[in-house]
Amino acid sequence: MEKSLLFFLYPLAQTVFFFLVLAAARILFFRQSGPDKKGPALEGEKEKHFLDLKEEVVYLALIFINLIFIHLQTSLILLSHRIGQGLNRFYFYMLFGVIIILIPYYYARGKMILKE
Question: Is 86 left (phi over 0), alpha (psi -120 to 50) or beta?
Fold first, then answer.
């Protein structure tokens, strides 16, 4: 089989997607200071706790997004060698479920910070 630069297309797409999500999070997510836009601006220690919470949620989401990419890549490799059956749908959907669970996690932790 001939060598091709297309081999690097998938890792390149994964890397570009990672940095795009990170940049979008920094632009959109780190603007507001409370758990919602209606809340008052926070100062001091609470502001630092919210910034830490936002970074935690963004990095957790990026971890699970990369796990999705890794699962797709592993499935493609195993399928191309006729070793695996392809995509493990349960694991794939569970990764998306964990990402969605991060939304109420963020709001619950934000409310806890406000009550401190």
Answer: left
SS3 58: helix
Tell me if 107 is assigned to some domain: yes
Output the six-digit token pair for 67.
């796990």
Q: Within a domain: residue 101?
A: yes
The end-to-end CA distance of the chain, in Å, is: 63
- Taking only the tens place, the pLDDT of each residue in 17-41 is 989 988 888 887 776 555 555 555 5
- Is there a domain that residue 94 lies in? yes
Q: Are 62 and 22 in contact (CB under 8 A)?
A: yes
Burial class (CB in 10 A: 0-12, 13-18, 19+), 61: buried
Number of domains in the chain: 1
d(CA 106, CA 88): 28
> What is the DSSP code string of 46-67?
HHHHHHHHHHHHHHHHHHHHHH
Structural domain for 66, as ranges: 14-31+44-115
| pTM (two decimals) | 0.73
